[in-house]
Amino acid sequence: MRYRTLGPYEVSAIGYGAMPLSIEGRPDEARARATVHAALDTGVNLIDTADSYYAPGGEPGHNELLIARALASYGGATDHVLVATKGGRGRTDDGGWTVNGDPRHLRRAAEASLKRLGVETIGLYQLHKPDPGVPFAESLGVLGELAAEGKIRTVGVSNVSAAEIHEARSALGGLLVCVQNRFSPAVRDSEPELRLCAELGLAFLPWSPLGGISRSALDGPGGPAPESAFHTVARNRGVSPQQVALAWALALSPAVVAIPGASRPESVRDSAGAADLVLSGEELALLP
Predict the structure, then answer these.
(1) Mean pLDDT value across residues 98-109
(2) Residue 218 has what pLDDT?
(3) Which residues lie below 8 Å from residue 80, measured CB to CB, with a gap of 6+?
(4) Which end of the chain has the least Cβ crowding within 10 Å, N or C?
(5) How crowded is residue 108: how many other Cβ atoms within 10 Å of its Cβ?
(6) CA distance 177 to 17
């Protein structure tokens, strides 16, 4: 496993996005714990969760509680594991997603996440999405307050524009350590934000990084994407196209720390293998 810098942390170049363990189609608890344990076994030490990762009609925090139980039941050391959580979104009973960036809500959400994760300080707390009904500065301000109170150590922002990254950096200074936007072979509209992160020394965490290779949990049910150059390179290397897609993302910039999701131990082990897959210049040239 290779490691990269995320603020004050050294994290695995491939992290683990835990959302599939708690939303629609989730596995049972035994397989969920086994999946988290498999990630840890490979050297993954970044787990991405959120209070809004739960099935419609369920209770907020399902994923956070599950991650806490999985870490507690792991046979090895876990004090080096960074559990990054997010606040500012929720679910509707029909499966939709809400946004709430009100400072009072974010404070309550962060304090509830602290309890569910069973920690004194959240290592990385991320604003899940800017709320168009709340001034961005107000949402950022309460995160700075929570950091000053010792409830969170570092801050990230998700689903943001370049202008919002600049605003967050101005408001939070060194507390801001990462940006989490959707980015994959099929969805590349956050390339400007990726470049900006590299310039500012921020980590860039692409969510749903396998789009174009396989479907995101947010895209609904479906099988693999059509054949592409990623599949060709994968066949030549004797690896999965998912590994090639993740290795491609890592090759774009040292700022990238990918967080693919998985609901099976086999999948998480395959994804982790991308950290050690170095693509040649010729192979990268084939990938659009």
Answers:
(1) 98
(2) 52
(3) 45
(4) C
(5) 12
(6) 18
Q: What is the pTM of this model?
A: 0.94
pLDDT digits (tens, 9 = 90+) for 196-216: 999 999 999 999 999 989 755
**Angstrom distance (rounded) from CA 166 to CA 171:** 9
Query: pLDDT tens for residues 262-276?
Result: 999 999 999 999 999
The residue whose two tokens read 């150059």 is: 229
CB 84 within 8 A of CB 47: yes
Q: How far apart are CA 85 and CA 127, in angstroms?
A: 9
What is the token pair recorded at 247?
């290795």
| 71 DSSP assignment | H
pLDDT of 288 > 90? The answer is no
Average pLDDT, the chain: 95
Q: Report helix, strand or coil for 235.
A: helix
Strand-pair partners of 157: 127, 179
Q: Where in the sequence numbering do the catalytic residues fall?
A: 53
DSSP at 159: S
Partners of residue 6 on adjacent β-strands:
9
List, as own/partner pairs, every contact residues 32-35 make where C-beta atoms lie below 8 angstroms and the sequence separation is at least 24, other chains included.
32/66, 32/70, 32/263, 33/66, 33/69, 33/70, 33/73, 34/265, 35/262, 35/263, 35/264, 35/265, 35/267, 35/268
User: CB–CB of 184/135 below 8 Å?
Assistant: no
Q: Edge-to-edge, what's the strand order for the sheet holding 122-127?
A: 16-17, 46-48, 82-87, 122-127, 152-158, 176-180, 203-204
Q: Which residues of 53-75 are buried (b: 16+ CB within 10 A; e: fewer)?
A: bbeeeeebbbbbbbbbebbeeee
**Neighbour tally for 77: CB within 10 Å:** 8
